[in-house]
Amino acid sequence: MSPPLSWKCTDYLTIFLSIWIILSVWAAYAGVLSPLVVVLALILTYAILRLTKYAPHEGKIPLEVMGAGLLTILLMGFIFFGIQGGYDLSADAAPSIATTAIQSHIPSDYSPYFDLPYFYQLGLPTIASQFTNLGFHPHHVLWAFALVGLLLAMAGLTQLAKHLHLSAAVAVWVPILFLCARIPFSNLLLGEYPWLLAMGIGFMSVSLLQRSHFIGTIALAAAMITHPYIGVLCALAWVVLFFPQFKKIILTIFGVGVACIPVIQYQILGFIGLAKEPLSGTEPLALANFIASAHLQGLIPFALSLAWIAHKMISKKPFTRSDIALIGIGFGGLILSVLLNALFPELILGTKIPALVLIGMTLMGAQFLSAMVKPMHVGKIALALLAVALVLIVTSSSMHSTISGSKITLEEAQFATRLGAHDSAIVPVLFLSDSAGKMAQYSQKIPSDPRGAHFMLSLQLLRTPRALELKEQSNAQREMLATKCAACVDAFLQKYPQHYIVVNTEEFPALSARNEIFREGKLILYAVKP
Description:
By secondary structure, the chain is mainly alpha-helical. It contains 24 helices and 7 strands. A hairpin with a 3-residue loop joins strand 1 and strand 2. Helix 9 packs parallel to helix 11 and helix 11 runs antiparallel to helix 16.
């Protein structure tokens, strides 16, 4: 059976997405963002492809790659819509609120939620807002773009295998090992939407830079705008893997810098917060725990990459330059992630490095499997690896919690949606629940706990008087919830006026003296004023 799709699809999709992201950010910066940007992006994509006479990757997408992509869509779709009811129950509220805040321009602050400076990666929110302004739910749009990022990452890794002149058998194993890592699943469930889309475009940009420096620079700029950390890591991977000429590096830096001008002021805030945050030391067992539980997020690729190194040494086969580059990216990236997590925990820099680690370990492990597994056994071994990996992923305690909903329950999410339908105004609400931030997201209300579910990323970084005031409010709400102090509600309302009160009766006593509007199970909505 011949594969129905060619690599042109992934190339053209990446180029269009990249141009769309860059145009959207510039349009939002100028205050003229509208759905017409999509049309302009399509026209510009066609014009650039014609003018540059770009030659896309040749050949058909292997059935293994398409099968892995389809499995990813089905599995993640079943979890998101079948188990979680279409809510991102374990994601932070920040991506959704950042998207909702963008209308025709990039806002200066998070009004009407809070008067704090706007700070978030701009690439994904600007293109997602073009859908949410038409009535689509932000978390649905963000999830869909992140899934596209996962599929592009799989394609980008497979194309990198070609550029490194690895065998066709290696390309067969790349998507299998990609799914054996926990990174694709956990980050989609945890709401790392910009991270995932940037990873997909970034992996493709490394490949595109080898075919057309101009086209690849556009894609790298889009990855940098979508998630600066990932953009920098992909640029590093390009330099390490292919060691381009100095002139090309300078031109790439210049091109990316020009494209990123609109986002610079929105990233400075993060570096200011980072500079003010004191450094912390590393605990004795932190390294082992970090590797095991957080960063590799998949023992199979890790073990196979080690097996590949051992196989090369035992067989006395020389390590090529690309071999050394992959080892450096895989294990060097792992060490870098540990160091960054220890030194800069406030911005969780270290948790972004798995994108770099994934490149090295996936390609190393794929080479080991292609050398050791005979063609007639590929199907059986691949199925066995996937079965073991998926069982380990789904049955792990952390993933089980993530799938079930670590930030909010489905019942709370549905209750919040009903609250939003009851009153569409964006008004302050006292959420006496650990899920305050997520309930505010789904009901489009102003939470009494602004730090709940990282409602705003800027609140973590700022030390301004207004930010400190909001943190005091957050602390007061959390203390009241922790002590179950029903008598403290009136004092809180006098200091921080609210329109409604939502009580989770499993976490806080019911307020019998208040005017009840409606209840669903353990959740009750009260009016503050009679």
